[in-house]
Amino acid sequence: QVQLVESGGGLVQAGGSVRLSCAVSGSIFSINAMGWHRQAPGKQRELVAFITSGGSTNYADSVKGRFTISRENAKNTAYLQMNTLKLEDTAVYFCYATTASGRPYWGQGTQVTVSS
Question: Of 14, 66, 89, 96, which sits 20 to 30 A from 115 (CA to CA)?
Answer without folding.
Answer: 96
